[in-house]
Predict the 3D structure of the following.
Amino acid sequence: MIALRAEPFDASALLAEFTARAAGAGAIVSFTGLVRDENDGGAVLGLELDHHPRLTEQALHGVERDAVARFDLLDIAIVHRHGALAPGEPIVFVAAAAAHRRSAFDAVDYVMDRLKTDVPFWKRERRDDGAHWLEARAGDHEDRRRW
Amino acid sequence: MIALRAEPFDASALLAEFTARAAGAGAIVSFTGLVRDENDGGAVLGLELDHHPRLTEQALHGVERDAVARFDLLDIAIVHRHGALAPGEPIVFVAAAAAHRRSAFDAVDYVMDRLKTDVPFWKRERRDDGAHWLEARAGDHEDRRRW
Amino acid sequence: MKILFFGRLRDGPPAGPVPSGVRDTEALRAWLGGDRPELLDTSIRIAVNDEIVPGKQPVEEGDEVAFLPPMSGG
Amino acid sequence: MKILFFGRLRDGPPAGPVPSGVRDTEALRAWLGGDRPELLDTSIRIAVNDEIVPGKQPVEEGDEVAFLPPMSGG
């Protein structure tokens, strides 16, 4: 399941729904990415998440498909915000259910690495010293090459 | 936070409480381990989790302490059941909050590896062909040595 | 031809009418790059009609061309 | 001396009164192992008064000694 949301979502409610669907799973891993309240020593006032009206959803489906092909999963969910986010709000929720824990861990880790570099999202952080576009860090590209 | 529970718990409620406490986190990873409904091709009717009345809690505190020392975390939670569990019930919930995702992933992965081999729990699975004590698999010991 | 900019490229001026001699993505990039040299950087990917193109690709009237800077999701 | 068994070791018989000559954990393991050879396996760890002991350790009247088979949490 993938979803692109303009409105805030509750990661624990998503985990509850996901768990209810994942009958027979022995392991469920979830990742929630949140807007931090500071970055590089400056206070963060908010985050704008730009996306492409069609390419982004296509790319999310592609990442989901690749994760399902690569790992032994019972289910996977990827939910991503766009628009204007406040500090503390979730940006992304990824969950994977599997019979055994290694597949679930690896799938969520993989999806996060793909999201950082391969899916059309662009972040602009509003800080007290102005607005800053963020780009994937060198470490994100290294992480991407692990797979 | 560590907790040893005799009664069933709701992993998504634990994630909600954990997230509420983890102000300023950029990444929250959770793991939920559940009683599967089959194993080795046999239907699982239930799981009994034996523990030691004091050593188990001590060992959980030790694992928590080691994870906090080893990873750059804002918070960590380890909740483990004991007693008689039904298929689908959660056995364990582990969550870690950090500024960045790698620390949160690694901490949860590490805690799960430690729980499999270093904390006094013993599982007996009730299957349609009788009761079977489970022991950590060779792979669990290999995983433990990664850290 | 409809030209879209995303992420930090939104901060620049919108594109004017494309000259008829511009018939592929790299010619378009070069033409736009005259005013906006940041578009010449190879890290800027191009999508034609919702598909990211790996290299030079023909473009024509009616196409939608998107300029995508490095992504930063998750 | 109070002797406790955990996990699959619970399935065996409880221990009888410990002879007074048994004064350390390895002597206790050897004595109990006469009837229950599974206790002789080095994978069985021993805790004295809630502390897992790495090797031979004195035991005396009033101690609680726990025999712990390989663990399987999580």
The helical segments of chain C are 25-33. The interface with chain A takes residues 6-8, 10, 47, 50, 52, 66, 68-74 of chain C (CB under 8 Å). The beta strands of chain C are 2-5, 45-48, 51-52, 64-68.
